């Protein structure tokens, strides 16, 4: 139970980061100091979707109602993908940063 709670907190943090990244990318899209704001938005949208999907799977697992076709390995893979996509978004944000 403790491990599942930590998993939910971790994925909730990832979902919060994904949502804030998406919001920040949209708000800064009109800035003339960014090289390519559309690329940031294009990476932020799937990152936020995967982060929220990982949160959904973790919450369902906490309530002992796991997603039918997604076992523990699939849930772990989805969480790992959310972490990876968040890191990729950070790299894209750094590369498309100020001129």
Mean of residue pLDDT values: 87
- Determine the N-to-C terminus distance: 48 Å
The secondary-structure class comes to mainly alpha
User: Helix fraction?
Assistant: over 70%
What percentage of the residues does DSSP assign to strands (E)? under 5%
Stretches with pLDDT under 50, minimum 5 residues: none
Shape: elongated
Secondary structure: number of strands: 0
Order of helices and strands: HHH
Largest sheet: none
Radius of gyration: 15 Å
Task: State the main characteristics.
single chain; 99 residues; mainly alpha; 3 helices; 77% helix; elongated
Structure in a nutshell:
Helix content is 77%, strand content 0%. The chain has 99 residues and is mostly helical. Helix 1 (2-27) runs antiparallel to helix 2 (37-62), helix 1 (2-27) packs parallel to helix 3 (72-95) and helix 2 (37-62) packs antiparallel against helix 3 (72-95).
């Amino acid at each position: 139970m403790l491990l599942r709670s930590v998993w939910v907190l971790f994925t909730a943090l990832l979902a919060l980061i994904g949502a804030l990244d998406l919001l920040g990318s949209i708000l800064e899209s009109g800035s003339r100091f960014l090289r390519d704001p559309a690329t940031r938005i294009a990476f932020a949208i799937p990152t936020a979707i995967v982060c929220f999907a990982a949160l959904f799977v973790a919450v369902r697992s906490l309530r002992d109602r796991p997603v039918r076709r997604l076992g523990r390995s699939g849930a772990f893979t989805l969480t790992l993908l959310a972490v990876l996509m968040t890191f990729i978004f950070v790299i894209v944000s750094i590369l498309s940063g100020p001129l």
